[in-house]
């Protein structure tokens, strides 16, 4: 029985030869889940990225293909989801999961949030970076 996002992400990664199908299923489930589960699905994608690192290029490539749709969907589901998206995109940029595309992705998300929520994207970005400082410690502890 899978008890956590770590277990589920490990299980997903064990099917890396079927990364496309795993990611497509993840996206379908994201679109059909209740609003309160959206952030959990985004964190699952983050956990998969974190665990597979540079070795799991299949998942990185497949997630990159669907992230615009997934993140747009999440951004439309309220401020909690928007903050989670921004936080994760900042993490992905810091860890360079998508190489130089990560910065572009973060800039797009900040712009979308600024335009749609009428908030200062730079202030939100700074808040997300502060949260990421705390996240780094947990990230490093979990990696060991």
UniProtKB/TrEMBL annotation:
Residues 1-114 form the CID domain. GO terms for molecular function: RNA polymerase II complex binding. Pfam families: CID (PF04818). SMART domains: RPR (SM00582). Keywords: mRNA processing. The keyword ATP-binding does not apply. InterPro entries: CID_dom, ENTH_VHS. One of its GO terms (biological process) is mRNA 3'-end processing. GO terms for cellular component: nucleus. This is CID domain-containing protein. The keyword ATP-binding does not apply. It comes from the Eukaryota.
